[in-house]
Amino acid sequence: MPIVKYPRATEPLWHEWDRRAQKCGLRHTVFAVNGDQYTGEWLDNLKHGKGTQVWKRTGAIYSGDWKFGKRDGYGSYSIPDPITKEYKKVYTGWWKNDKKWGYGATVYPGGERYEGEWSSGLRSGWGRMYYRDGSIYEGQWLVDRPDGQGMLRLPNENRYEGGWKDGKKHGPGKFFYLDKGQLFEGIWAADIPKCGILIDFGRDEAPAPTQYPIPKV
Question: Is Phosphoprotein there in the keyword field (predicted)?
Answer without folding.
Answer: no
